Amino acid sequence: MASITTGDDDLNEHLKSSAFFNAAQFPIIMFVSTDFEWIDASTARLSGNLTLHGITKLLIFNVVIDSTENNDSKKSDNLSMLAIAVVQHSDFGMHELQILVSDKVKVNLKLEAQRMPG
After folding, report:
1. Whose CB has fewer CB within 10 Å in the chain, the N or C terminal residue?
2. Distances (CA, A) of 11 to 5, 8, 26, 52, 97
3. Residue 43 belongs to a domain with what CATH number?
4. Structural domain boundaries, residue 59
5. Is 62 inside any structural domain?
6. Phi then psi dihedrals of residue 35, to 5 deg
7. CA 59 → CA 33, 63, 74, 113, 116, distances in Å?
8. Does residue 46 lie in a domain region?
9. What is the domain count for the chain?
């Protein structure tokens, strides 16, 4: 959390404060994947444990192949994917400023995978 960068120094400091992420007490946000399941040729599900504010919860991302970066995902050794999930920060004990900030936060990840030889 100490390295959060939004492009606005005041916002960075506010996000690090106890009103949001409380970076002094909880310096790390961590996602550890536990499963990746293909649904069909262009979609998948990525599951794992998100630890935020000292609380760990299951988080499931819906994954789609980024067709702008992949010509043929079955033949390519490299794969680019977009993953989307929704987190409710109140599930992680973050209740400050709820009147100003939505409880639901959309998390977007861009994933790059490379086929291992052999």
Report:
1. C
2. 9, 5, 18, 19, 14
3. 2.40.128.110
4. 28-114
5. yes
6. -160, 145
7. 9, 13, 27, 20, 26
8. yes
9. 1
Name which of 33, 36, 44, 26 is nearest 89 in CA terms: 26
What are the residues facing 84 on neighbouring strands?
62, 108
What is the model's pLDDT at position 34? 97
The overall average pLDDT reported for the chain is 86
pTM here is 0.78
State residue 60's pLDDT score: 97
Residue 18 has pLDDT above 90, yes or no: no
36-79 pLDDT per residue, tens = 999 998 999 999 999 999 999 999 999 998 765 555 545 567 78
Cα angle 48, 51, 54 (rounded to 5 degrees) comes to: 155
pLDDT score for 67: 61
Q: Where do we find the tokens 């100490």?
A: 2
Is the four-CA dihedral 28, 4, 35, 88 of positive or negative sign? positive
In a domain, residue 10? The reply is: no
